[in-house]
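Budget justification aside, the reviewers requested a transparent look at the raw inputs and outputs of the sequence design task funded under Objective 1. We therefore reproduce one unedited record. The lines immediately below are the structure tokens for a 431-residue chain.
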């Protein structure tokens, strides 16, 4: 048990999140809303808490204010505990004048803040993955094999494999080869017999590659050694891990449950909508491993004359005569009569508008926060505090893959319409 007392988790969220733009226009990637009421960062933090890992750092450098606010309001452990969740934003110092240059460089620059915790093991996690894992099993594999580094891997199909770092192991699970996002012939050389990891013959035929999940366990001293080496590189996947394989004991830990990298608009959109299906791949209703988030003490949602199916409705919503199919309705969503939602993610609002505020805005031809009467929204993401007017049609009528709307009122990415945070879409707009 003593081994686990000196484990520190580091969640990487320092990138600009360009693949999730415009959702990351005003917030750090780990702070992007998920499932109507959560944030992306709630997933790895909850996994840590459920695994009894209570010393957690979140590294970021872009738009960290909302992430800071969420974490400070959500994760407050007992004053009699050593547990904490702390954001470490990139900083410029005399010995480190540059911003984070990559995942490994982010950890390298934050080591002065981490080493004071008498840590012997560091768990490196990503801030944009959707999965449920008991990290104690991951750590047990690390300690049992006396590993210097352990990589969590997932069996992968060929069509997915070329987007990940792939590895090969010997019969005991020691990693002997690693290639970052190989293509063509290089990809084929990374095929392995995954029946050795407990897959059936049929499963192994469908998933013959071992893909790195981008999460690692490091022996602290070995990590410092790797990061301090000359030309050690700035990225774990492309540089540090291949270097470690050549000279250290690097082991693989197989994870066979649901895992999704939600770092792109399409993957984020599809993973969110799947949460509303009758049997979702990721289930927030799993009482044995809860996903935690901020308690807001909102009133129950009010639903009048609505036709809603295969959807999730969060707290504090006011829904009047709407039609919704396969949609997510976030906190404080206010949606008026005749609105039709299909395959839509409505992130809701950060606050309720008073009747006086709504009247004042109407007199200025500004829609209220939410969605106005008789609007149709299909295959879209509506970010927080957006104001969608009456008789609007957000349907991507021309099947456009990519477009930036006038004055930033909307964007289209991978065929999905995104209305950014605080945007205004006037009455009668058609996209």
């Amino acid at each position: 048990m003593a081994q686990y007392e000196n484990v520190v988790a580091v969640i990487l969220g320092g990138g600009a999140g360009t693949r999730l733009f415009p959702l990351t226009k005003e917030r750090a990637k780990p702070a992007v809303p998920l499932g109507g009421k959560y944030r992306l960062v709630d997933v790895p933090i909850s996994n840590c808490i459920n695994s009894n890992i209570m010393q957690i750092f979140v590294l970021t450098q872009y738009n960290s204010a909302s992430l800071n606010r969420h974490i400070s309001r959500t994760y407050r452990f007992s004053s009699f505990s050593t547990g904490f969740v702390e954001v470490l934003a990139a900083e410029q110092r005399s010995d480190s004048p540059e911003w984070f240059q990559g995942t490994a460089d982010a950890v390298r620059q934050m080591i002065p803040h981490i080493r004071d915790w008498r840590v012997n093991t560091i768990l490196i996690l990503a801030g944009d993955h959707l999965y449920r894992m008991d990290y104690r099993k991951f750590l047990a594999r690390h300690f049992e094999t006396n590993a210097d580094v352990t990589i969590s891997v997932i069996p992968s199909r060929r069509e997915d494999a070329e987007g990940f770092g792939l590895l090969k192991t010997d019969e005991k699970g020691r990693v002997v080869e690693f290639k970052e996002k190989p293509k063509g012939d290089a990809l084929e050389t990374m095929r392995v017999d995954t029946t050795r990891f407990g897959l059936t013959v049929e499963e192994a035929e469908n998933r013959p590659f071992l893909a790195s999940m981008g999460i690692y366990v490091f022996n602290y001293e070995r990590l410092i050694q790797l990061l301090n080496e000359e030309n050690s590189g700035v990225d774990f996947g492309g540089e540090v891990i291949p270097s470690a394989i050549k000279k250290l004991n690097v082991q693989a830990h197989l994870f066979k449950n649901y895992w999704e990298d939600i770092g792109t608009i399409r993957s984020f959109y599809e993973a969110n909508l799947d949460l509303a299906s009758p049997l979702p791949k990721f289930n927030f209703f799993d009482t044995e491993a809860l996903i935690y988030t901020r308690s807001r003490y909102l009133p129950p949602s009010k639903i009048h004359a609505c036709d809603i199916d295969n959807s999730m409705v969060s707290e504090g919503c006011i829904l009047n005569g709407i039609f919704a199919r396969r949609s997510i309705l976030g906190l404080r969503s206010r949606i008026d009569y005749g609105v039709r939602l299909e395959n839509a993610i409505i992130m809701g609002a950060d606050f309720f508008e008073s009747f006086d505020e709504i009247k004042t805005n109407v007199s200025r031809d500004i829609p209220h926060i939410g969605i106005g009467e008789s609007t149709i929204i299909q295959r879209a993401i509506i970010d927080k505090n957006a104001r969608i007017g009456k008789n609007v049609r957000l349907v991507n009528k021309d099947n456009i893959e990519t477009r930036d709307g006038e004055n930033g009122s909307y964007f289209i990415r991978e065929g999905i319409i995104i209305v950014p945070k605080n945007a205004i879409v006037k009455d009668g707009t058609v996209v």
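DSSP finds twelve helices and 29 strands in the chain. Residues 137 and 355 are 53 Å apart (CA to CA). Computational costs for records of this kind are itemized in the attached budget.
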